[in-house]
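Researcher: Here's my situation. A collaborator sent me these components and asked whether they could plausibly form a single complex. I don't have experimental data yet, so a predicted model of the whole assembly would be a useful starting point for our discussion.
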Amino acid sequence: MASVSIRDVADRVGVSAATVSLVLNGKDKNGRVSEALAEKIRNEANAMNYKPNSLARALRSGRSETIGLIVADISNPFFAQLAFYIQEHAEKYNYSVIITNTNESTEKMEKMIAILNSRKVDGFLIVPTENGENLINKLVADKIPIVLLDRYFPEKNVSYVAVNNYKSSKEATNLLLNLHCKRIAHIYYKTSLLHMQARKDGYIAAMTKKNLFDPSLIKEVNYQTMYNDIQKAILELVSHEQKIDGIFFASNTISIMGLNVLKDMHIEVPKDIKVVCFDKSEAFELSNSSIPYIQQPVSEMGERAVDLLIRQINDKKAPLIFEELQANLMF
Amino acid sequence: MASVSIRDVADRVGVSAATVSLVLNGKDKNGRVSEALAEKIRNEANAMNYKPNSLARALRSGRSETIGLIVADISNPFFAQLAFYIQEHAEKYNYSVIITNTNESTEKMEKMIAILNSRKVDGFLIVPTENGENLINKLVADKIPIVLLDRYFPEKNVSYVAVNNYKSSKEATNLLLNLHCKRIAHIYYKTSLLHMQARKDGYIAAMTKKNLFDPSLIKEVNYQTMYNDIQKAILELVSHEQKIDGIFFASNTISIMGLNVLKDMHIEVPKDIKVVCFDKSEAFELSNSSIPYIQQPVSEMGERAVDLLIRQINDKKAPLIFEELQANLMF
DNA sequence: CTGAAAGCGCTTACAG
DNA sequence: CTGAAAGCGCTTACAG
């Protein structure tokens, strides 16, 4: 590689490395370095194809200009897109992003935090796992800049960017109610995470208001055995003496699997059962009828989170911010 | 943060930082450090919660234990998955991955290479853009370890991992021929990249063998205006006096858009037109009929590429390897 | 106002 | 065989 160092440039021009650093970083204000000399340094650096070594800079300055991103499931298109927008936006601040994945495992989240810490990221953007609260609290205690994404914890000691889960879920349920559904089921995945609870609560509120709420309409599935659980849940729901006429799926993955199950059971959507989904999937576009869904503002979520994090990095006293973005019902 | 440095540990134990480094990196062979002392050092490091600073290590050792990954379109699920498997596998070598995206722009690819170089990645995994050959050659000239993914260039001076595009495309076309299709169209996107050419050539070979080849059946679309181009192409194909009865879509994205266009035109698959796709989409599962597709071994591709790259990093004289993995026709 | 020196946290080549 | 010193490439606090 034989890469050119700042000293090489300095030697060539006949000044100290410090002067070169000052000029190239635009810190030669107050006429500290004459414009003629500065110009000469810049030209020589260009001619020699000098590229700063980020590692050395980071080690010395204590700033790596790197963000550590930890998502719960990168194979989920929602998180993949989120990662994409985060990276695009971070680039505008000259920040790089190291993306890591936990597969919803708190153990892996701990490992990823350790790796990113050893790489001296300036801050964290995290979609936390269930039970990940202690790990987050540890980062907070160490005064490490951090913004949570999509999910959050009851103890509001960390900034977050999420969507209005409660309100949008209520709207989604109301959509089915307005289509004259009476027995609307809700399938969500078992977790203590609040965003999922809020979705369920929104559903319950809408159903209760119409006096149609029945606890047996709610089915919980496990993340690890989701497909089988959904299959079992739907089977129970349709074989009940009072058949269901609608389903509100609480997430992207649940929706896709749920629609597959319905197809396998030869249940037609929306003829036999009407459906509404939380989050979009390219799959919907191709199904024989268009399916209503709650659209999350994913680019906005990523961008806002980056903005908040950069602000925290630059100002350790930046206030906590809890941001709920509007998700829209599309149909 | 007040993080613990190697010197803090050394001071506490009463030895030099060098000795601590030796012990913790397992380089105290030949009884260089007595087992008792080594044990004491390890215990103290644990007790003090010492975590090495990767930046300092990388700066000194010249190895960042980081891979730079450059993909052409992270919003494409194929590449998103590829990135995921690469990361999972790299972790086994204690390597981190910085994922970047080019949106098929060579200009952006140049920028990403510069960023990753300044971060001193040990090697590159690249899904190159069209016209990206010069940039690749520059890396090769600088003896930087590099493995191409999915795509490759005529001048075989870089290792790559790809799939057998020609053979699997031929098989896909044969599938439609065996279903008694006579006028099978092929929609691919305009590029000089060889992987796409190979897919077209496989299609042509299969059609020619049955004396059914007609150049007007091949439609080229542009990456930037893909949806409109596909719409126009299909309109032309179906309004031709000899109507088509089959389509082979050359990529993931083309397939999804193509199926949407067919749906909008009220053309039923497979009743009116039979279809086969290169690459899978969750969308297929939900369409009213299951759609045959060529399944790429994405996890294997990611893992093999990481293996090859690590080998190059560890041995600058490692031979070039051109690997074609088997893609399977699923129906 | 400006240059030379110190030092970020490591690892490794080199004296003793 | 083993310890202390040099140095990776930068930036910044500190003398002059």
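Model: Some features of this prediction you could bring to your collaborator: Chain A touches chain B through 46 residues (CB under 8 Å). The mean pLDDT of chain A is 91.
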